[in-house]
Write a structure and sequence with these properties.
mainly alpha, 5 helices
């Protein structure tokens, strides 16, 4: 499927595809589409989780254990916000 690069909701379509692939056990496809979603919107944490889960299922544990570079700013911001609530 081709999506418009000008659509501000492209990440949501890729996220839905990643979810579908992950649930059907198509982990390589889930990685590809989750990564595209993360590239389009790194602030969507669920896609980062999907990408990590797919990588782990493929046995790519080193990659799965480290946050993808595009997610790291979100994770860092989330950790900081969480520590402020304590």
């Amino acid at each position: 499927m081709r999506l418009s690069p000008f659509d501000s909701w492209t990440w949501a379509a890729f996220d839905a595809q990643a979810t579908r692939h992950l649930l059907r056990g198509r982990y390589e496809e889930a990685c590809r589409t989750a990564y595209k979603s993360v590239q389009a919107n790194a602030a969507h944490s669920i896609t980062c989780v999907q990408l990590t889960a797919a990588l782990a299922k493929l046995g790519r544990l080193e990659e799965a254990g480290l946050p993808p570079p595009v997610c790291s700013s979100f994770i860092q911001r989330f950790a900081t916000d969480a520590s402020l609530r304590e």
